[in-house]
Specification:
This protein is of the alpha/beta class. It is built from nine helices and 27 strands. The chain is globular. The termini are far apart.
């Protein structure tokens, strides 16, 4: 037994030395302001718009990479007018020249993605369309200018077979959506459109020698914004700033949030689990990222301790009189703009009597209508219609409580436990009143089989579902199927499953007391949740009349 342990120790030490010697290089791109596109507020109908969150993405990722010791000079952070194809390829070549075999490249792109008609060999796309990344100088009049298609990118990646590459693409390639989204509420789309290109390439253009079918990219891990090429990627607002959800949570993941076992190495599996869970919740199940190849336990990213902050000499602060606690009373009026703020100052919702959307990507937006207000979440889904006679009832406060609870719930998903899962038998598209839907609550592991399930309706009502007094909380590994008929009101429900190691009696009693009323207070819910080891799963049900 001692010999086996000695051999294992030697292998582990060798692996650690090998990983510690490998260097990590970064190349970060973020483009909001395109040379030939229109600013978002001034875009004519049918024209392509600039973005708002791509530069924020790039700056956040750059900060996270540098904090973890990644080699990322300013010439490798390409923003707006510096983010040209020429500068991108030059920075990539610089990494090739400076790196040693076994080093890692982290390449991220936040901006528009498009599609173009295949006009030359290899013709390897079923839809006859190549996917493209669109750089600052992309020219709609000559769409070969300012873009790299997937075959050209593949040729560049093949030059780096001696290295490991993480490629993050926070863009989209076409305009499909699984369900109806109010685009005035949702953030800017990162869809760059479909283009017909000339048959003849440019003089200095990369000429691909092989297509998608060759197997020369085993050294590349791709992290894509959506699970398919056909889904739309929209920006959102996180901590008050526009972002792409994939970029934001990639930055958080490599900062250490994805390191579930806290061993200072982020595996592909850890990174995939963390990003998929966070993005899916942030975008209300309308964006599911994809990691290729599927996540395994190989190391994707090595963490190093953050550089210590400089210590400044202590200054004697002047004494301030304590400020009184101000309680904000909210009332929905048709002639006023109303903003409700959380304790950290972020908008909960805003509405204007002129019918304009006064806070883009707010957590909740109220759109005035003839008989009341249509209520949207931050991704543009209609979650409820509030009639004028209900404005002075408790329904607006219920909707606010629902939103605050869901925001905290997302932060309570544990990265050190397997993911909680709720599988839908139907697509994420809008379901009509009267149709039947089915969900299966599946335990994430043998140790997490005690289920507590509840629903948050679009009008904010909290509905306790499971377990009832006569049913066991332990559901087994085959899962618990639940089937029911969609009933009014139409909007957006959020089903939640809490999977625990033991039956959380106090949590269940607490939640039962909220049945039919407001969503629980987030801080109180968290206290009961942490009495037992638990993981959270969540899924949306979006309905229409």
């Amino acid at each position: 037994m001692m010999i086996i342990r000695a051999v294992f120790t030697i292998v582990f030490l060798c692996l650690s030395i090998q990983l510690s010697q490998a260097k990590q290089f970064g190349l970060v791109v973020g483009i909001d302001d395109y040379k030939h596109f229109f600013p978002r507020a001034e875009t004519p109908p049918g024209q392509h718009t600039d973005l708002q969150g791509a530069v924020n993405d790039a700056k956040l990722i750059a900060k996270s990479l540098r904090a973890k010791g990644v080699d990322l000079p300013d010439t490798h952070v390409l923003l707006n007018e510096t983010a040209t194809t020429k500068n991108f390829l030059a920075a990539y070549q610089n990494m090739l020249d400076r790196a040693d075999p076994g080093d890692t490249f982290i390449i991220t792109f936040a901006g528009h993605g498009g599609q173009e008609r295949e006009v030359a060999e290899p013709l390897d796309e079923k839809d006859n369309l190549d996917e493209t990344l669109m750089f600052y100088e992309f020219d709609p009049q000559n769409p070969r200018v300012g873009r790299l298609n997937d075959d050209q990118i593949r040729e560049q990646l093949k030059l780096a077979r001696e290295f490991k590459i993480i490629l993050v693409m926070d863009s989209c390639h076409s305009g499909g959506l699984e369900r109806s989204i109010n685009k005035n509420i949702a953030g800017a789309s990162r869809n760059g459109g479909k283009w017909n290109i000339t048959v003849e390439p440019l003089l200095d253009e990369i000429i691909p020698k092989s297509g998608d079918k060759d197997n020369s990219l085993a050294h590349v891990t791709k992290i894509l914004a959506t699970a398919t090429d056909e889904l739309l990627v929209t920006e959102t607002r996180i901590d008050g700033q526009p972002h792409g959800a994939l970029s934001y949570y990639f930055a958080q993941g490599i900062s250490g949030e994805a390191d579930a076992d806290k061993n200072n190495y982020v595996s592909k599996r850890e990174l995939s689990n963390y990003i998929e869970t966070q993005v899916l919740a942030e975008m209300n199940q309308n964006q599911k990222p994809r990691l290729l190849p599927r996540g395994d336990d190989t190391v994707a990213f090595q963490l190093v301790p953050d550089a210590p902050e400089p210590v400044e000499p202590e200054k004697e602060e002047p004494k301030l009189e304590p400020k009184p606690v101000i309680k904000v009373e909210t009332e929905v009026k048709r002639d006023d703009r109303i903003t409700v703020r959380t304790l950290d100052g972020s908008d909960i919702f805003a509405l204007g009597s002129d019918g304009r959307y006064v806070t883009e990507s707010a957590d909740i937006t109220f759109e005035p209508t003839r008989d009341g207000w249509t209520v949207y979440n931050h991704t543009g889904d209609k979650i409820y219609h509030l009639f004028e006679e209900d404005a002075l009832s408790d329904e607006p406060q219920k909707i606010i409580a629902r939103t605050k609870f869901l925001k905290r719930l997302q932060k309570l998903v544990r990265s050190d436990l397997p993911l909680g899962e709720i599988r839908a038998a139907q697509s994420p598209k809008l379901q009509t009143i009267g149709s039947r839907v089915k969900f299966t609550f599946t335990a994430p592991s043998e140790n997490l089989q005690h289920l507590t399930a509840f629903n948050l309706a679009g009008n904010g009502e909290f509905q306790y579902l499971y377990p009832q007094p006569t049913s066991p909380s332990e559901i087994g590994m085959r899962g618990l199927p639940v089937e029911f008929q969609v009933v009014p009101p139409a909007g957006a429900d959020q089903l939640v499953g809490v999977y625990c190691t033991d039956q959380p009696h106090d949590l269940q009693n607490y939640l039962r007391n909220h049945n039919g009323g407001y969503a629980p207070e987030p801080a109180e819910f968290e206290i009961f949740l942490k009495q037992v080891d638990c993981q959270i799963g969540r899924i949306g049900l979006f309905t229409q009349e």
